[in-house]
Write a structure and sequence with these properties.
By secondary structure, the chain is α/β, with parallel strands linked by helices. Helices cover 36% and strands 12% of the residues. The longest helix has 26 residues. The radius of gyration is 36 Å and the shape is elongated.
Length: 361
């Protein structure tokens, strides 16, 4: 009898012990699973309750059990790790961060549209910006003539962000007639490519005057500003509108620093009659594929020059502003003839220097 009592009070039978152990283990597993589900990191990999969370992986291939847990991927530093040791997230090159500018680097420009005023520089800029391999500053920074003292870091910060495969470009037409500009640009980079848009000097001067007249209606007449003595045919080269058209004289300063092969001349006249052809040569000069073709242009009869066709992302065709295509003031034909004669020797010398006949006579 004593044996039976001791037997009932003694250790449980082996089968019963295994059942109790299994139940206890199952209870612990469920508790651990619930704890992880409550405390695990969210979809951004950041734990809501723990400094160094662990997340459960999905079921294994056979669907029988959960795989081993792994550390969550935090976006920022944890209390046990310094901020510098946590890698920053990497995004594809085409991604945007909360509306931020397209990823890339702000670089000093590899190409510049340096002139000339009222020659067609704005048209070239707007046309070339269509190219996916070109990123251009929309405004004129005037760095190499007015803001050089601000330094290259200030200048670089103005530039749009570009990828390695893209060209950074800006335009400031006054560079061409600024004596210090060639040396300053050379000091920035001797490999800079230069684009000069030229136009018949007489037509360019009239356009220049027309623009000034729209802002200052009380200025003297075009004839009065053009000549020191019209009877003797003495042209006033101190007037900026006349001086800019002496292309060959300004070019001499540039050739002291840059070879002719690094300077491309665009015809302002052909830019109107054959924009695709002129832009094709610009693309060749920049070393990029001919992306801009005839399909990008249509001729605006009202303005008298070509405009970019409407794109999928634009509701209206892209034409230049109201200040472009402005009707020129009427000038005495005799004054025009006198100015043509004045410019003729300079034009011929310019043709010979650049190896291109612009046919302005």
């Amino acid at each position: 009898m004593a044996y039976r009592v001791l037997g009932r009070a003694g250790p449980p039978q082996p089968r019963r012990a295994r059942r109790l152990l299994f139940a206890f283990t199952l209870s612990l597993s469920c508790t651990y699973l619930c704890y992880n589900l409550l405390c695990c990191c969210d979809d951004l990999g950041r734990s809501r309750l723990l400094g160094a969370p662990r997340c459960l992986r999905g079921p294994s291939a056979d669907g029988q059990k959960l795989q081993k847990s792994r550390p969550c991927d935090p976006l920022g530093p944890t209390p046990s790790a310094p901020a510098a040791a946590v890698p920053r997230p990497r995004l594809p090159a085409s991604s945007n961060l909360s509306g931020s500018p397209r990823l890339g680097t702000k670089r000093l420009p590899q190409a510049l549209i340096v002139g000339v005023k009222k020659g067609g520089t704005r048209a070239v800029l707007e046309f070339i910006r269509v190219h996916p391999d070109v990123r251009a500053l929309g405004t004129e920074p005037h760095f190499f003539d007015r803001n050089y003292g601000r330094g290259l870091d200030w200048y670089r910060n103005l530039m749009p962000r570009t990828m390695e495969s893209q060209i950074t470009l800006e335009k400031t037409p006054s560079y061409f007639v600024t004596q210090e500009a060639p040396r300053r640009i050379f000091n920035m980079s001797r490999d800079t490519k230069l684009i000069v848009v030229v136009r018949n000097p007489v037509t360019r001067a009239i356009s220049d005057y027309t623009q000034t007249l729209s802002k200052k209606p009380d200025i003297p007449t075009f004839e009065g500003l053009s000549f020191r003595n019209r009877t003797l045919g003495l042209v006033d080269v101190s007037w900026n509108a006349i001086r800019i058209g002496l292309y060959v004289l300004h070019l001499e300063s540039w050739l002291q620093y840059f070879p002719l092969a690094q300077i491309h001349f665009v015809s302002g006249e052909r830019l109107i009659t054959d924009p695709a052809g002129e832009m094709g040569r610009v693309q060749d000069f920049l070393g990029i594929k001919r992306f801009i073709t005839d399909k990008h242009f249509y001729f605006n009869k009202t303005k008298g020059f070509p405009c970019l066709k409407k794109t999928e992302s634009s509701l209206l065709p892209r034409c230049l502003g109201k200040s472009k295509g402005r009707t020129h003031v009427q000038i005495d034909p005799e004054v025009i003839d006198q100015l043509r004669e004045f410019y003729r020797p300079y034009n011929i010398k310019f043709y010979e220097t650049v190896g291109q006949d612009f046919r302005w006579e």
